From TrEMBL:
Family designation: Belongs to the AAA ATPase family.
InterPro entries: 26S_Proteasome_ATPase (IPR050221), AAA+_ATPase (IPR003593), ATPase_AAA_core (IPR003959), P-loop_NTPase (IPR027417)
Organism (species): Echinicola rosea
Any Pfam family matching the protein: AAA
Coiled coil: none
SMART domains recorded: AAA
Keywords: ATP-binding, Nucleotide-binding
CDD domains tied to this protein: RecA-like_protease (cd19481)
Domain AAA+ ATPase, chain residue ranges per copy: 225-357
Protein name, entry field: AAA+ ATPase domain-containing protein
Superkingdom of the organism of origin: Bacteria
Length: 435
């Protein structure tokens, strides 16, 4: 870290010495950096072969996070009596008391006041992988300000990684309407029919081989990045568990977005809420799981007023964001018929999660009985499996109810009466007839 700061200081001083007439020829800083490849910053620079102008940009954006007074000290050495130095750029923030570098700061260090040389470096702000991957961005100012006067900002997660060697997972909030989900279960615990499992395997194959397909096999010109899938079926049939397992076995974070919670009656708010999520997820290797997708991607309304018209435009915009997202996006719905056909045509895969049949229900009963629990001798789980059309989630709830009753009676045996009561509770919850 100190080597990078020293490198940046030499580059700034060389430019200022030349521009203020202290030297007649611009010295070119030459430094052989010996960074620790075991640390996040050193590993990043080594893995991405970051050097020259890109190394300067990376260091510029990182400085405020590690040395707030860095730029002030350098400028004060040249202007001990104070005074304005507009060529250097930089802005003051509300809380940060040091100088935050801007695009103008970078251009001054790279090109000084020469307009032609500055023009040569302008493409860096769009072509550099640091900007393309969102590691660094140039904040947009007001319309009256020059484009390059915006602050040079490092993505918060990279700043945290480079300074603390770790990244905190984003938490559910109004600005981030998603929650990290995970599971301790395994693929063997997921009980589905073979057709559904085969479709899920196709998603897993895409997650594992997408990069090779697009780049090693040269399909990036023909295929859009990303993969869009729709899960449909009754609640409790394994849609969320499947998404969690896909993340677990491909080592990707899965974020669940409940669209029924983020849709807003106020025009533009839903778009704003989800747009910030897509912006944050754009360069992360996440799986986005949109639960209750009918809430926003359902059949579009007839245009009766301006609000309906805007709502439809809003949904179209979000669909475009989903189509352009480079990762895996899963939309979950209780019924396929609830989703507008204009949307379903955009998915690579549509997978049904039907209610389990009797044989599958028996496996679910057997898998979810607690290892330390016993079953009453007069209890035949196969009868339950044949008689009661329950989902996997229903069966887990029934077993939880019966297990708690057994524990409260200081027993280790699940009784038929408690299980039947648990089944009745589940059926009543769903408005089904209880026989």
């Amino acid at each position: 870290m100190n080597e990078l700061l020293h490198f940046l200081k030499i580059a700034i001083c060389a430019r200022m010495d030349f521009e203020t007439g202290k030297v007649k020829q611009l010295p070119k800083p030459q430094m052989d950096l010996h960074l620790n490849k075991e640390e996040a910053l050193g590993k990043f620079i080594f893995d991405h072969q970051v050097k020259n102008q890109e190394l300067l940009l990376l260091t510029l954006a990182l400085v405020p996070h590690i040395d707030p007074g860095f730029f002030n000290r350098i400028i004060q050495a040249y202007f001990p009596k104070g005074g304005e130095f507009p060529e250097f750029g930089g802005i003051k923030a509300k809380n940060h008391r040091g100088i935050i570098p801007t695009g103008e700061t970078a251009l001054y260090i790279l090109a000084g006041n020469d307009a032609n040389t500055r023009k040569k470096y302008l493409p860096l702000f769009t072509t550099s992988f640091l900007f393309q991957k969102g590691i660094i961005s140039l904040e947009e100012g007001s319309r009256s300000e020059p484009r390059w006067s915006g602050a040079l900002i490092m993505d918060g997660e990279y700043a945290e990684l480079f300074t603390t060697e770790r990244i905190s997972k984003p938490k559910l909030s109004s600005s981030f309407p998603a929650q990290l989900i995970n599971t301790e279960l395994e693929w063997e615990d997921l009980v589905l029919n073979s057709k559904t499992l085969n479709h899920i395997q196709e998603i897993e194959e895409w997650l594992q081989h997408e990069h090779a397909l697009l780049h090693e096999w040269g399909m990036h010109k023909r295929l859009k990045p990303g993969y869009r899938v729709m899960f449909f079926g009754p609640p409790g049939t394994g849609k969320t568990l499947t998404a969690s397992l896909l993340g677990k076995y491909t080592q990707k974070d899965v974020y669940r977005i409940d669209l029924s919670l983020v849709t807003s009656k106020y025009i533009g708010e839903t778009e704003k809420n989800l747009s910030s999520l897509f912006d944050k997820a754009a360069n992360k290797d996440w799986i986005l799981f949109f639960d209750e997708a009918d809430a926003i991607f359902g059949k579009r309304t007839n245009v009766r007023d301006a609000h309906d018209k805007y709502a439809n435009q809003e949904v179209s915009y979000l669909l475009q964001r989903i189509e352009n997202h480079p990762g895996l996006v899963i939309l979950a719905s209780n019924f396929k018929s609830n989703i507008d056909m204009a949307f379903t045509r955009r998915f690579q895969s549509i997978i049904e999660f039907p209610l389990p049949v009797a044989a599958e229900r028996l496996i679910l009963w057997e898998k979810n009985i607690p290892p330390k629990a016993k079953i009453a001798k007069d209890l035949d789980l196969s009868v339950f499996a044949k008689k009661y059309e329950l989902t996997g989630a229903n069966i887990v709830n029934v077993i939880q109810y019966a297990s708690l009753k057994a524990l409260s009676k200081d027993k280790k045996e699940l009784g038929q009466e408690d299980l039947l009561t648990g089944i009745k509770k589940e059926l009543v919850k769903e408005g089904k007839m209880v026989n």
